[in-house]
Amino acid sequence: MRIAPGRGRSLGQDAVRRLLRNRAAVIAVVIILVLVVAAILASWIAPYPFTQQNLLVTDQGPGAGHLLGTDALGRDELSRLIYGSRISMSIAVITVAIVLCIGLPVGMLSGYYGGTVDLLLMRLIDVFYSIPFYVLLILLQTYFLAKLPDIHSGPLVVLRDLNSVTGGLVGVFIGLSLFGWLNVARLARGQVLTTKEQDFVLAARAIGARDRRIVWHHLFPNTLAPVIIMAALLVPGFIIAEAGLSFIGLGAQPPVPSWGIMLADGVAAIESYPYQTIFPALAIAITLLSFNFLGDGLRDALDPRMR
Amino acid sequence: MGRYVVRRLLLAVPTLLLIYTLAFVMVHATPGGPWDNAEKPLPPDVIQNIKLKYHLNDPIWKQYVEYLGGAIHGDLGPSYVNRSQDVAEIIARTFPVSAQLGLTAIVLGILIGIPLGTIAAIKQNTLTDYIAMFIAVVGVSTPNYVMASVLVVVLAVQLHWLPPGGWHGIFSSTIIIPALALSFLPASSLARYIRGSMLEVLRQDYLRTARAKGLRERAVIITHGLRNGLVPVVTVSAFLIADIITGSFFVETITSVPGLGRYFVSAATGRDYPVVLAVTLLFAVVIIALNLIVDLLYAVLDPRVKYQ
Question: For residue A65, is it within any domain?
């Protein structure tokens, strides 16, 4: 009697199965998907445009017509929250994409080839770690917000257009990407350093595999898992930074609604209309919680020791 | 170890120079200047005089060197906005406030976080553990300004238990809300780290020995368990302190605490160059110093760590 060998499960399938069993992570994924959909379809699902002011209904509490109330200028809170998710989600997605695209290759190649490139990268990371994060962001934003409106020609016009498209957040994107890619590069480098000494790499080299194949086919899949976890856990920090900067007025510029701006407006009226603070605060907190649970879930799911 | 310290200190100098250069370039590249703060547009000769007074006509490299020279001697320049005060004066007035707030926050964080994490580790996978870790995740996920806003709404506006803002010193009720808001992140971070660290320590053989000797459980945990479990926590604490000191902008703004963070923000938006430069340098020095202290403490606390 032959027992047919069963189909093996890859690490990926294992991970997905374990992730799905983690209820908090599943809820987190659902929430994040809802937010992404809301961000993309904002113009269709928001009941009012985010700039529309109705000065007859200012500072209303939640009620008919305005499910979450209105702010001091009569703008619908719910619509502004929905449009605000655009800013937060674009920070999450775009910054992570940039950070991964730059950090992964640089880190992996630096770890693999070593030498002066590696030394340079390490020194760069050390130096950047000493720079106060928020201070740099504030400096960058102050610079871009002041300088870009004056640029009418030359190569920097691209930045100016990016700035208006993102609602004044070009400096934030640049600053966050600068910090993010260093973290990812360091992690990728560490992973490559440990993996490249292992026997299967030696075996591959012995067969005559070229560097490119070793890096792409052997090292990359092993580096990917921790890097993805780190990316998921970097997102909350990014969102906090953007919202914080918008809060002090150095982030998204009105009329573009960001949850941080809404929070600032709410705080100004905090003694009379507390709900104007609570709704954006809840939105921020729920988003951050979701990404943190997702990151924790990913970390537990991708841990090869628990196979 | 002495050589390690010297090497780190030597490395700190070019780092500080780099940060100074970055900040200097960015601040001076930003258009606008001290004359923009006047309500009425100033006549050109007044602007000329202002430029002469603040050496703004000198070539950039000269301003760079002069400011650096002054800074090393403690002269951080005049404030462009508050013209009767030196930057050094302003910092001397606002930094203690931020420091007091920060210290209170970190102490609160330690007092809340360490017991929370330890209990979660001891009662692993029970309801206590889940509740504690849920609180910790919420604390890590909620930014300090959101926490501050919520606390002000609940405690000050609705319940009138605490004042919504202002500052009357470290022993007044005005410190409670901002310190609490700032302490949530450290408390939650510490709780999570301590839980992980204690989970490892609790499995170790020397704890079994201690119990076998007949020590009471509490003595076992505190004397033997915590002492070793606290080592990785020291690293985290230093970063948390650095974060609090250099990141209290938002909370200070919300609760109207006259600290350095709030002042830095108004200086950045008000083009007060010397203040921005000075504060950037100050924060950088603080972070570098804390990093060095952490590494040294690590070597002291964990006898397995050796630096050449």
Answer: no
The string of pLDDT tens digits covering residues A189-242 is: 888 888 877 777 788 888 887 877 777 777 777 788 888 888 888 888 899 888
Q: How many domains does chain A have?
A: 1
Task: Quote the domain boundaries for residue A147.
Answer: 12-52+74-306
b/e burial code for range A14-53 (CB count within 10 A of at least 16 → b): ebeebbeebebbeebbebbeebbebbeebeeebebebeeb
Q: What are phi and psi of B86, to 5 degrees?
A: -85, 155
Q: Tens digit of pLDDT for each residue in A231-279? A: 888 888 899 888 888 888 888 887 888 898 888 888 778 778 878 888 8
pTM, whole model, 2 decimals? 0.81
What is the CB neighbour count within 10 angstroms for residue B219? 14
Q: Would A245 be classed as within a structural domain?
A: yes
With respect to CATH, is domain B88-270 assigned 3.40.50.740?
Answer: no
Over residues A88-128, the pLDDT tens digits come to: 888 888 899 999 999 888 888 888 888 888 888 888 887 77
- The answer to whether the Cβ–Cβ distance between B268 and A142 falls below 8 Å is yes
Q: Do the Cβ atoms of A131 and B284 come within 8 Å?
A: yes
Q: Do A285 and B145 touch (CB under 8 A)?
A: no
Contacts of A139 in chain B (CB under 8 A): 22-23, 26-27, 268, 276, 280
Residue B249 CB burial class (10 angstroms; 0-12, 13-18, ≥19): buried
Instruction: Tell me the H-state helices in B30-86.
Output: 44-53, 60-72
Q: Tell me the CATH number at A150.
A: 1.10.3720.10
Which chain B residues have a beta carbon less than 8 Å from that of A292?
137, 140-141
φ/ψ of residue A76, rounded to 5: -70, 125
Q: What local confidence, expressed as pLDDT, does residue A307 receive?
A: 41
Token pair listed for B52: 């002469």
Distance CA A13, CA A121 (A): 35
Residue A57 lies in a domain: no
Query: Exposed, middle or buried, B59 (CB in 10 Å: 0-12/13-18/19+)?
Result: exposed
Nearest Cβ partner of B141 from A133, A150, A236? A236
Q: A6: helix, coil or strand?
A: coil
Assess if residue A58 is contained within a domain. no
The answer to whether the Cβ–Cβ distance between A134 and B138 falls below 8 Å is no
